[in-house]
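Hi there,

I know you've been waiting on this one. I reran it after we fixed the sequence typo, so this is the corrected version. Both the input and the resulting structure follow.
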Amino acid sequence: MGDGLEHPNWVQNLKIAIKIQEKANEKYPGLFKPIILRNSRYNQNLAKGASIIEVGATGNTLEQCNTSMKYLADVLKDVF
């Protein structure tokens, strides 16, 4: 890894993230932005399948973020 820290399950975590992304694109096209890969682990090494999912941005309201969480929950229900 770029910062020298090991993350032996990163490929497995990426595969799960891709499944989530694919299901989201199938159910709600355009809702999710592309997956971004970094050479850091952000504690994703602590559990198999750990991912960071960011919701909203500086231009979004809390209401918009809460609404998008309903869609995310629906996607995760289908994937898991």
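Quick highlight: The helical segments are 10-27, 62-79.

Best,
R. S.
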